[in-house]
Amino acid sequence: MTGTAAEARASVPAHESSAGVPAHESSAGVPAHESSASVPAHESSAMARARELATTVLGTTSPNPAVGAVVLAADGTVAGEGATAPPGGPHAEVRALARAGERARGGTAVVTLEPCAHTGRTGPCADALLAAGIARVVVAVPEPTELAGGGADRLRAAGVDVVVGVEQEAAERGALAGWLTGVREQRPYVVWKVAATLDGRVAAADGSSRWVTGPEARAEVHRLRAGCDAVVVGAGTALTDDPQLTVRDADGRDADRQPLRVVVDRRDRLPATARMLDDAAPTLVSHAATPAELLTELFARDVRRVLLEGGPTLAAAFLRDGLVDEAVVHLAPKLLGAGPSLVGDLGISGIGSALSLSVADLTPLGGDVQIRLRPTRHTGGGTRTGGDGTDGGS
Ligand SMILES: NC(=O)c1ccc[n+]([C@@H]2O[C@H](COP(=O)([O-])OP(=O)(O)OC[C@H]3O[C@@H](n4cnc5c(N)ncnc54)[C@H](OP(=O)(O)O)[C@@H]3O)[C@@H](O)[C@H]2O)c1
C-alpha cells in the first residue's frame, strides 16, 4: 500500500461501515455478472470480509486508499484481519499480519489492493508478507500507480503464489472508489445525498425542510458523512437551513473526527453567525465558479470522497457536468404537492434526453427507503476519461 499524498505526489505521474459507502454494500456478494479470477469459497469469504474491513476506515485514510486485508492460516482459518491506518500508520496487510503472528507462516493473505513494493512512511507490504512467510496472496485490484506498483511481481519472484483480479469490480466500487477516482481523474469521488418526499420535494412550499425523513435515515446521513472527507452544500442551503453539517452520534454528540465542511458561496452571502462557521469542525467557504473547480480545490486538500448534500441548484450543476458518481436518495412516504424539487434544471427538454441512473440497491430505513444509484448516462459535457494517477497507491 502506498504512503501519504505527499510521498505519492512527489514521485508518481499519477472508487464500502462508517464513511460514504453503505455497510451492506461492502459485505454484499459479488455481482452475478462479474467475471473474476476464481478462488476457493473460503478465500472468497475472506475477500468479502476484507472489503467490509476497508469500509470501516473510510474517511480516515485519505489521501491513501482504504484497504482491507485478511490473513488465513495454512489450514484456511482466519488468523488476522486489518484495515489501513490513518496516513503514516501501518497498511492493512501489516496490521493483519501483526494480528496473525506465527499463524501467518505458510498461509494466505487476501487483500483488496495489490500490496505495495515501495517504501513510503512505512516499508513495502510485499516485504512484510515475505518476512511473515505468506505462501499465497489473493488480490482484488491491481495497484494502478507506478509509485507503489510491482508488489505482485516481487512476491512471485520470491516464490509466492499470487492471484490478482479476484472480485475486482466489487472492490473497485467499494471502499477503493474514492481513491481510484483520484488516481484516474485527479478529482474526488462524489456521492450526492438527498432526502425527498414521494413526490420528490426536498422542502415544503414555506421553505421548511427539517425532518423530511425519520430518525433512522437521519442516522444514516451521519454515517455517510463520517465516511467522506468533505461535506458540501450550496449557499442556498446554508442560508435557508443553517445546517451545522457535523457528524453526530445518536445522542447528538460530535464525533472525534469531522469531515471538512464546505459551502460554495460565490457572492459571500453566508453570515458570520452561520452554524457552519462554528468551531465544531473545519470549514471551507469556497468561491469556486464550477463544480469541477471546486473538486480541484478539494483534491488539492487531499479530499478523495465528497458528500454533496445539496441543495437542488448545486446538485443540478454537478449532474449537468457529469460529476456525480453515486446518488443516495432517502425517500419518505409523504406528499407535499408543492415545494422545491430534489434537483434543479438539468437543461433537459425531452424524455429521450433524461439522465438515467441504475439502482445499485434499495434498503428500508425505518419508515423511509434508501435508494442508492449510479448515473449511467450523463447530460452536459462531463468527461470521465481515465489517466495516470498522481497519488500513490496502497
Ligand atoms: N431535503 C434535502 O435533502 C435538502 C438538502 C439540501 C437543501 N434542501 C433544500 O433546498 C433548498 C435550497 O435550495 P437551493 O437550490 O437554493 O440550494 P443550494 O443548491 O444549496 O444553493 C444554491 C446556491 O449555490 C450557489 N452555487 C455555488 N456554486 C454553484 C454552481 N456551480 N451552480 C449553481 N449554484 C451554485 C449559488 O449561490 P451563489 O451564486 O451565491 O454562490 C446558488 O444560488 C432549501 O429549501 C433547503 O431546505 C433540501
Automatic annotation (TrEMBL):
Cofactor requirements of the protein: Zn(2+)
| Record EC number | 3.5.4.26, 1.1.1.193
Q: One Pfam match, by short name?
A: dCMP_cyt_deam_1
Q: Which residues bind substrate?
A: 209, 225, 245, 248, 309
Give the pathway listed in the UniProt entry for this protein. Cofactor biosynthesis; riboflavin biosynthesis; 5-amino-6-(D-ribitylamino)uracil from GTP: step 3/4; Cofactor biosynthesis; riboflavin biosynthesis; 5-amino-6-(D-ribitylamino)uracil from GTP: step 2/4
Mark out the compositionally biased spans (Gly residues): 379-394
Which keywords does UniProt give here? Hydrolase, Metal-binding, Multifunctional enzyme, NADP, Oxidoreductase, Riboflavin biosynthesis, Zinc
The UniProt entry's GO biological process terms, in alphabetical order, are: riboflavin biosynthetic process
Q: Where does NADP(+) bind?
A: 195, 211, 237, 241, 311-317
Q: Which domain of life is it from?
A: Bacteria
SUPFAM superfamilies from the UniProt entry: Cytidine deaminase-like, Dihydrofolate reductase-like
Molecular function (GO) terms for this protein are: 5-amino-6-(5-phosphoribosylamino)uracil reductase activity; diaminohydroxyphosphoribosylaminopyrimidine deaminase activity; zinc ion binding
Tell me the function of this protein.
Converts 2,5-diamino-6-(ribosylamino)-4(3h)-pyrimidinone 5'-phosphate into 5-amino-6-(ribosylamino)-2,4(1h,3h)-pyrimidinedione 5'-phosphate.
PANTHER family noted in UniProt = 2,5-DIAMINO-6-RIBOSYLAMINO-4(3H)-PYRIMIDINONE 5'-PHOSPHATE REDUCTASE, DIHYDROFOLATE REDUCTASE FAMILY PROTEIN (AFU_ORTHOLOGUE AFUA_8G06820)
Q: What is this protein called?
A: Riboflavin biosynthesis protein RibD
Biological source species: Blastococcus saxobsidens (strain DD2)
